[in-house]
What we know:
The protein is of the alpha/beta class. The protein contains twelve helices and twelve strands.
Amino acid sequence: MSNYKISRRQFMTASGAIFTLPLLESLFTNKALAQAAGDPKRYVLFYWPNGTYNRPDKPIWETRVGDLNAGNTSIALTPFASNYSEIVSINYLNNSAWHAMQKLYNDEHAAQASSYINCSDVMNSTTTSFEHVIADKVGKPALVLSGGVTSADLPADRYISYRNGVGNPGIGNPGDLYRQLLKQVVPTTGTPTPAPVDNTKSVLDSAIADFNSFNSKLGKADKAKMEEFLTAVRELESKVIETAPPGGVIVTGACVKPTINPALDNTNSKDSTLYLAKFYAMNDMIKIAFACDLTRSVSIMVDTETSQRTWAKPPTHLMYQGADISGGYGSHTAISHGIIHTAGYNLAATRDRVLMNVLIDLAEKLKTSRDPSGSRMLDNTIIQGGFGVADGYHGLHREQRPLVLVGGRNMITGGKSHKLSAYQMKDLLYTISYKMGVGLPNFKGSNKIVPL
Length: 452
């Protein structure tokens, strides 16, 4: 039982995350029913740096068009067979904005990063990346996270997130994210105090008059549904409300006070033993932020574009041909620029699986919570992972930038592989906004729907 306390009024609101008001055909039209059943829709981006190997002779990520299964998957996705039904593999998607940014920065790394979810041909005071565009439409601030800096990148190499032309490096220390969420989830000094509530009465007692006001309008079947609903909420109340000071109750659920391992409250981005653990901790807090509906769009720059990240020993099942990326291999030079050799190729495949595993970790965590309709939180969240630079050797095979989507079952169809050479990144992002129902008229001029 958690010690996190909320008011009885908050409890009544939060109970909707577990019990939704029954569908009462006597009162609502079909359209109203559909609206009442709507859940928050969310977007998360994981940006992977440095490029990989996707040449036609031996790709790491490319899959044939069709269903994802054991006979049709990529080397990068092989360890995640239990997740195939929720993965969409996207091949040969274009991003023409990169060419304009290449001219601006005269650096491929900076151009790829800065244009990735901006999809903008210019960098000016109106340039805003996708997660912030979504945030502005839904009225929930975007959450921007980062793995930190390990090498002397150009400034533009460090940013995928832009708001009004200004790059946002994001939160790199899970401890800082913890403290930010703590302020939002737990009321702080100076927060307006809600009106007093009589804590000697059941939550239902304060609402029963409202229910009675329309009870006479219900048919026999709907009255039975309503009685079942009230009984369920009363049973929940008896389980989660314990003796508490006036104005507070003790509750459990996904919207809870965040916690953090003190060892991960650390700004050192070069400690390979902490690096991945920090992302897993941030994934825990993303889940809380979603459950509390604090944000609906998140961008995560897993690392900066020319990072020389070194890695801890990965789990055996993520190693390709036994390639162990620990031991001082720099992610940029030793792995991404070493993939022309067999040993380097194997290291790249292992590293890419390690990156994918961070995304899958969040997906698995979002499976364990339910939205108001009863859907898994993952079903209402599209998680995107992808590279900016197409290939470790930049001049080769620029047309294939690996990208996957995970989750979003209530918006897109998983378990598929698509070749999208006829589409741009801005088309994909507009499509995601359309599937989320946020009401964007276009994104960077595109209103083209990608078949997902």
